Amino acid sequence: MDLMNVSSLDAAIRGCFGESVRIERELRVSGGDINDARCLFLSNAEQVFVKSNAARRADMFAAEAAGLLAIAATKTARTPHVLCRGVDEGLGISFLMMEMVRSGKKAADYWEVFGRELAAMHLADTKTLSGDGRFGFSRDNYIGSTPQSNGGRNSWVDFFRDCRLVPQVKMARRYLDAAVRRRFDRLLDRLDAFLTEPDRPSLLHGDLWSGNILPGSDGKAWLIDPAVYVGHAEADLAMTELFGRLPERFYGAYREVNPISPDYEARRDLYNLYHLLNHLNLFGPGYYSSVVTALRRYQ
Predict the structure, then answer these.
(1) For position 49, what pLDDT does the model report?
(2) Contact 225, 212 (CB under 8 A)
(3) Could you tell me if residue 214 is left (phi over 0), alpha (psi between -120 and 50 degrees) or otherwise beta?
């Protein structure tokens, strides 16, 4: 699906809602640490959500839109409807406009429904999504503000090595002493001793921590801020445990639709090593000890 690309925020409003519609007021929305986020109240009584950043960051929003559209195309998990994106040279910003997800109370079966929906997303067909191989994505994107390579590979182990761990290790070298660098070299050389190929490739959210799962006004879970790619479903599950495990009801419902390997826990921290490295590269040495602790488990 081609997404409307417009030349100004006013043009975005007119193109999506009609020539007579205008912005009446706006409200800053908290929660993000990379982009400015606002709810726009329109003259037709609609509300829209707009994320913006410097004009040079336009590719980040193109990538995010592609990820949201890919998830939506599976007709499984909920994501906000993407309206348009653009660069407003007058304001000096790039932006992404989408449906405003109104916060609500979690339904009684919130986690069970989300578990089954995520499992269904992981079982959705990926043939048109992964670019030149079984694993990857049709375009590169970002994990936070870090570029994320999605070049196609036919092996999951090769993809996770070449497109996930290797770029982060290279960026982190300024934090790593010689002994830790040697440990990473050994891990990368022996990655197939720890990771397994999945039975089938899965579309992943890619940054699936609890802050990117929102309860909507319908009482259901909505996914935001994806860093999508086609990979092993276990990598998404691992991320749900990195900063605090989701309720057991979620995992039980997930297993009803898509079984989790009994060996998954042996690989969980290796998947999360990628995210810990990214946090080290983004936020500094406060994450160094977590990186080293995870690395030592795979020596």
Answers:
(1) 96
(2) yes
(3) beta
